[in-house]
Amino acid sequence: MPAVEAATPAARKTALYAVHRQMGAKMVEFNGWEMPVEYPCSGGLIAEHMAVRTAVGLFDVSHMGDIRLAGPQALASVQHISMNDAGRLAVGQAQYSALLYPQGTFVDDVIVHRLGEQEYLLVINAGTREKDFNWVQENTRGFDCRVENLSDEFTQIAIQGPKAVELLQKFTDANLAGLKFYWLTQGTLCGLKNTLTARTGYTGEDGFEIYIPSDEATSVRVWNQLLETGKAFGCVACGLGARNTLRLESALSLYGHEISDTINVWEAGLDRFCKMEKPEFIGRAALEAAKAEGLKRTLVGLEMVERGIARDGYKVLSEDGRETGYVTSGSPAPFLKRNIALAYVPPESAAHGSTLKVEIRGQRVGAQVVPTPFYKRPKKS
Amino acid sequence: MPYPADLKYTKEHEWIKSDGKTASIGITSYAQDSLGDIVFVDLPKVGTELAAGKVFGTVESVKAVSDLFAPASGTVAEVNGELATAPEKINKDAHSAWMIKITLKDQAELNGLLSAADYEKFVAEEGGH
Fold first, then answer.
1. In what order do the strands lie in the sheet with B14-18?
2. Which of A70, A80, A129, A187 is most buried by a 10 A CB count?
3. Three-class SS of residue A145?
4. What are the sequence ranges of the domains in chain B?
5. How far apart are CA A26 and CA A239, in angstroms?
6. For residue range B32-41, what is the model confidence (pLDDT) as tens digits?
């Protein structure tokens, strides 16, 4: 009998897909989404990366998901599922956090936005949209709180770089310069009422993420207007390739790499976003126990000191050739002009300056543990 | 024609230019365009024996690692040292940026390779899907 092949679901497209194709973007499938990886018309990945570090870049990140929690127990719901302390959030403030399994490992990382007195928006990864929504619904069942999946309602655009404020200011009366990092505003933007603008991002630069209606006409109009006005600021369209090299230089975690359902908060080095003083949240007990046991592995930054590029999944070895860890993310760093990586290694190999080897296609190539983030944006004078 | 007529080509997107005894080898402009900005090239040492169709090195962009396949058998006689520090030369002019020069083992192997016209057709078909 002929084998019956399961139909692979076709990759999803954002509202800006046609625009990316028209612009000649090189496309790639990422977590079930057909996304631009780089734009030859922007000069390609390295040029896009440099534009974000020196001017401003535009990213379609509509593949990300959005979950709204609203109601009298919205805060209690968030506090139960999220490891950071959402009780600290004023209306209009956001924080980086994570949803954890009872074992203290990651369901996903998330940015929690407090939109109103009893209203929170969780922005989550593309690949975990369904998993996260189901998780949130299941685990907030007992709370007086409405949980809505708004992932398809928004086109999300990131405007990132030192010139982001100047560019976006052209499109709103809100005082963007006065909006602090990790705060948000809801007002008229690009002629659209009640639009969420958050001073957040995944690049290590100043910048904003805007959430506009996901109909194609609106999405295309706003994208094109930003690009057109952005020309004066050196703005270019940027793809997932640059998105990855930018976040790697800034040592920001990527789900499935630095964080996953088999890695705990302490190993990932995300202690400062985990508020153990909260009396209860999913994963808290396991994290207490893990803390008492001590770290068995820890995430470090590596810089190649011999010729070669460490990449995702490559083995890390001690100087004397024993396999001790692995690379979670590795790539050339376009701004730093070095080859960098994040890796899990035993705590005894984690001191800055420790010399290790990375196995690159059978060769053992020298690397050194360095402080992270590899790149930190210059402070405004 | 985008592909020089005096070169021969492989389906793995290498080119080879031979004078009968020796040959230079590189990758095509189609290959460098697919890769994007090239940041690293790993080439064999002088004296290494190459076998036609086997991997002899790698070329890397920020995002990808790509194997280099020998278009013909022979011994590495010269390596382009410039590419260690300026791999972007391949992006600028792929058909001039030779990677290695080899002394050919058997000239006749080149007869099985693609002409510029055949390679252009092959690339058009490959890019089609």
1. B8-9, B14-18, B22-27, B100-104, B74-79, B49-50
2. A129
3. coil
4. 8-127
5. 9
6. 999 999 999 9
Chain CA centroid to CA A8, Å: 26
Q: Do A308 and B40 touch (CB under 8 A)?
A: yes
Angstroms from A48 CA to nearest CA on chain B? 12
pTM of the model: 0.95
Asked whether B1 and B116 are in contact (CB, 8 A), the reply is: yes
Domain interval for residue A352 = 295-370
- Give the closest-approach CA distance of A49 to chain B in angstroms: 11
DSSP one-letter string for B105-119: S-GGGGGGSBPHHHH
- Together in a domain, A58 and A80: no
A222-280 pLDDT, tens per residue? Answer: 999 999 999 999 999 999 999 999 999 999 999 999 999 999 999 999 999 999 999 99
- Burial of residue A232 (CB within 10 Å: 0-12, 13-18, 19+) is exposed
The count of domains in chain A is: 3
CA A87 to chain centre: 23
ipTM of the complex: 0.92
Shortest Cα distance from B62 to chain A (angstroms)? Answer: 6
Q: Name the region of A141 (left: φ>0; alpha: ψ -120 to 50; beta: rest).
A: alpha
Angle of CA points A187, A192, A196, to nearest 5°: 45
Q: Report in angstroms the alpha-carbon separations of A129 from A122, A133, A152, A166.
A: 11, 6, 10, 32
- In this structure, are A196 and A238 located in the same domain? yes
Interface check A245 vs B, CB under 8 A: yes
Closest among B7, B66, B72 to B39, alpha carbons compared: B66
Q: Which residues of B touch A45 (CB under 8 A)?
A: 36-37, 61-63
- DSSP assignment, residue A128? G
Q: How far is Cα A122 from Cα A74, in angstroms, rounded to an integer?
A: 12
Suggest the residue from A50, A309, A331 to mutate for an interface test with chain B (most B CBs closer than 10 A).
A309
For the sheet with A146-149, list strands across it: A94-100, A106-116, A119-124, A65-70, A146-149
**Gap between the Cα atoms of A4 and B60, Å rounded:** 38
Rg (CA), chain A: 21
Contact A302, A358 (CB under 8 A): yes
**Architecture per CATH, B8-127:** Beta Barrel (2.40)
CA dist., res. A62 & res. A68, Å (int) = 16
